[in-house]
Write a structure and sequence with these properties.
Strand content: under 5%
Shape: elongated
Largest sheet: none
Order of helices and strands: HHHHHHHH
Radius of gyration: 19 Å
Helix content: over 70%
Number of domains: 1
Structural class: mainly alpha
Number of strands: 0
Length: 207
């Protein structure tokens, strides 16, 4: 099955859930997407926005539903990171090139700047599905996590919903552009992994 076929089936599934469950379906799908399940917000919210154009939904209501669903999914991922993640990384981190010292540095960085990462991360395709995990590992205050995730998701949900509303039945035209952003994010992550491996090998050769 080609990628285009997968996206087509995914789009149909998303449309059926929203059509059946309404605002609750939007929240459910966005929550699942925030937990790393491959249900892209850049399909869910524009599809919901198209229904706003048809008079079936309200723009502010789909925005709130999308943000609330994202918040719930993010808090679940945050909890996994907080109660399981650190022990897992300490035990298996060497296999992903992350030493306890490097974990401590990452935790300090996230405790200081994590709220910015959480807010902006909600507006970056692909990354938004996992950004709450390191917040949990670094044990950020759950209130701060909740507020920043919700506000970031609110902006993102409104933007995509508004675009879908303006495009109407042609909302699918914007999806390929977000696929390109996904590929860009993946490419950057891949390059960062290669760079980390190079640094680790270089450090080992000097000691």
């Amino acid at each position: 099955m080609q990628i285009a076929d997968i996206l087509t089936h995914m789009g149909r599934f998303i449309a059926e859930v929203i059509d059946s469950l309404g605002y609750g379906g939007i929240a459910l799908l966005m929550g699942m997407g925030a937990m790393g399940i491959p249900l892209p917000s850049e399909v869910i919210m524009p599809a919901s926005g198209a229904l706003v154009a048809q008079g079936r939904f309200n723009l502010l209501c789909i925005t709130f539903s999308g943000a609330l669903g994202t918040l719930c999914g993010s808090l679940i991922f945050y909890s996994l990171g907080r109660y399981i993640g650190r022990g897992f990384v300490l035990r298996y981190g060497r296999y992903i090139l992350l030493s306890p010292k490097e974990l401590t540095i990452a935790e300090r960085f996230f405790l200081k700047y994590g709220w910015i990462a959480l807010f902006l991360g909600q507006m970056i395709p692909l990354l938004r599905a996992y950004i709450a995990l390191p917040a949990g590992i670094s044990k950020m205050k759950i209130r701060l996590v909740g507020v920043t995730c919700f506000l970031g998701a609110l902006v993102w949900s409104f933007t995509l919903g508004f675009l879908g509303m303006k495009l109407g039945d042609n909302w699918e035209r914007i999806e390929p552009y977000f696929r390109q952003i996904d590929y860009l994010v993946l490419s950057i992550l891949f390059l960062l992994i290669i760079f980390a491996i190079w640094l680790r090998v270089r450090k080992s050769s000097l000691t």
